[in-house]
Amino acid sequence: MTTTIDPPERRETAVDKLRNGREAISERWHHAPRWVRWVLLVAVIAFFYALPNKEFYQYLGPIPTPGANFTQVMFTVSIYVLLAVGLNIVVGFAGLLDLGYFGFFAVGAYTVAVLTSPSSDIKTLWPWLLVVPIAIALTMVSGVMLGTPTLRLRGDYLALVTLGFAEMIRIAAVSSEFLKGQRGFNQIPHPPGQYADGRPVFGVLDARPYYWLVLTLIILVVIGVRNLTHSRVGRAWISIREDEDAAQLMGVPTFKFKLWAFASGAAIAGLAGALFAGKQNFVNSQNFELLNSIIILAAVIFGGSGNIVGAIVGGGLVAYMIERFRGIELFGVELYEYRFLFFGLVLVVMMIFRPQGLIPNRRRAAEFKDRRKEVIVGE
Amino acid sequence: MSDTEQTPAVPAQAPAPAVETVDQREPLLEVDHVTLRFGGVVALNDVDFTLYKGEILGLIGPNGAGKTTCFNAMTGIYQPTEGQIRFRGEKISGKKRHQITRMGMARTFQNIRLFPEMTALENVQVGADAHHKTSVISALLRLPRHWKEEREGREKAERLLEFVGIRSRMHEFARNLSYGEQRRLEIARALATDPVLLCLDEPAAGFNPAEKEELLQLIRQIRDTGVTVLLIEHDMRLVMGVTDRIVVLEFGKKIAEGLPAEVRDNPKVIAAYLGVPDDAA
Questions:
Q1: In what residue span(s) does the ABC transporter domain sit (chain B) (predicted)?
Q2: Could you write out the three-class secondary structure of A66-81?
Q3: CATH number of B26-104+195-272
């Protein structure tokens, strides 16, 4: 038991202001009347639906990306947001360190590719929409298959095994004849739908419909995840994260709920993979580098692990930052080449000033606040 | 991931009369010649005693006597090397920990182990969830079962927080509660699992005499609701004041068993406690 007392009065520095800024916003948010919150929420969602229209984003100053089609970038960003929301269940709520999350994304994308593409060996050529639920189900199964032996392990071991899983998937994609390696699968069908004049809604040139589709699915997934976390399931996950032994002894079937966390996270990644394949039209082994797993994990921690809004903001910002460097030249060097250097710097700065993430869960924010007080006591 | 584990048929906790006499001697927990070895170390050596329904049994002994080890064997954390432990007539070994909890055994910890980043209320709700069945599907789709169990759990949690006297602190994070409040919260969380047997592992550690007196009251109240209590304790005075019977361990062996007064005068016990029968803190 460490005693915590209020720190002695001292002048507020710029750093303090930065630190306290979010707490003030969060305070205001939680004390705002319900209708204000709804209006703000609707406004934010409307903003993001409007964002990929050129008529809208041309007024947004430096936000659009100079070196890449902004609508395409927004699609990539939305996929990362979906992945961050899924990984946040596993890492943020259940506290299971999963370093191979992108492997599930690959399973989703490859399921769609194998079952729909004419270059696939089995040539089922099923339509995209039919395959999406199959992709999600298969990803969940792969999550359960990976989880059943490994979720009996704890901490470091789990991290290693999941890392191995992602590598296995990647190497299988590179070297297996069935998965076509570098050559990949082409002509993967797009999602269905036609305008009145017969043009397909989901075409090759315009990325906006895909972005809107993903955005809509993000909203549905977030509602689902919120339902889970505000229930017995979420309490079980958090109790496992907090103290697994105590949770077991209080009657929580920990293994079952860890498996569910894994399966739910995997299902979301599978959905993201299926959407990605349906948009790209082409899937090959280069899409699934290990680095992606690390980026998503970093995004979740950056945004604030254990908080759904934090995961959304983290996933969005990290994916956007990486793309934003494209096409900027400084002293004759393309900054995009150094994107991960900047990314690393930002992470280091974050860990110094906001180790709890941009928008931490309120509990964790409280914890870090306490710790600051303790440090001051020790001075 | 099917809901395979079914709740064993635990009869809804009978509101047993407070003064269910020990004479009836209905065994609840039988520690049957249990030996527990860790490599060459014999932590428990042929320990044998029975806990009867409705009593408060004290398990005492000097430091390192094997009290907590015995406790852990009883709650299914350690498997006995020899002998067996039966709870309500069923063998404990081979059962999963959460199943044992659902059979009606709950415990607190010597070093407090709450869920620090959950509120007091949520901590108790986790305990109440032990008998709930809502899983991913019902929670995801907000089926009626979810709402029903959520309401039940919440009401029960508030009631129990009221019972242990920290209801006003229910929205506080467990980590922010005072030491005494945390100990009380642990008891409330354990009670939320609807135990038939409540095992308290040194619940008075770090308490001052006034707090200890309050705790004694609380333990008696718990017994009066029909819950059998197993109390591991260091403080002899506390044990003498509240228990119906006492089992004394030393170096992993049972050296005495009986009524508090008998145990106090037992020369072996006096010797074990270095000739000080009453190590009154």
A1: 29-276
A2: CCCCHHHHHHHHHHHH
A3: 3.40.50.300
